[in-house]
Amino acid sequence: MTLLLTLDHLQIIKNQAESSYPNECCGLLLGQRQGDRKTVSHVWATDNAWDANAATWLAQLDPPLAQDCNSKNNGKGNSKGDRYWIDPSEMLAAQRYGRHHHCEIIGIYHSHPDHSAIPSECDRRLAWSVYSYLIVSVQQGIVQDLLSWSLDDCNQFQPEPLLIDAATFPETVKPAVKPVVLPAPPSTRLHAADLGNAYPGTVHPVMADPGTAHPDTANRWDQSRQR
Known about the structure:
Strand order of the largest sheet: 7-6-5-4-2-3-1-8
Order of helices and strands: EHEEHHHEHEEEEHHH
Mean pLDDT: 76
Structural class: alpha/beta
Distance between the termini: 27 Å
Strand content: 25-35%
Shape: globular
Helix content: 25-40%
Number of helices: 8
Largest sheet: 8 strands, mixed
């Protein structure tokens, strides 16, 4: 699958990721599935609801994973600096909105403060195969990288092609207080120089083959899964 967004969508996510630093931000991507493409029409920002209750739930769901998360967080187990949690009520609200606006949840995004935009083992174990997972790397408070991932048939993350439409829209729609951008027309691939306007330092808006775009991706992924 290919994930299609606009620059407006990226700007919303960028602003949230940087304002949330040093904590992780998170949110939902609403849109439509069309053949082998997922087109984002709405960015639904949420609070990072990770807390002791979420850590307890994780411990009940997957004790080994919870223990690993806890040990890598200096024993605290509930830091928003390296974990995120979307409240189920947010998911339900987004689903209700989608039913009335001809869209559905097609992805989830979150940031990695001072880490690469590569999924961690915790990300993988808690992921659902129907969603795209957009990860934003924020280094010292500034967004530096953005990649999209999806699970394969072996429940392993694989990089997902990401297409950026340069079109923007002055009009927005806001359900409650959620930032929303209207859907864009058919996209064109955005060159790195263009994406730099929204994401200084980003040099790979289309990620079709990690070995081609990033020769070191395999090493970055292996390192990140030790987070």
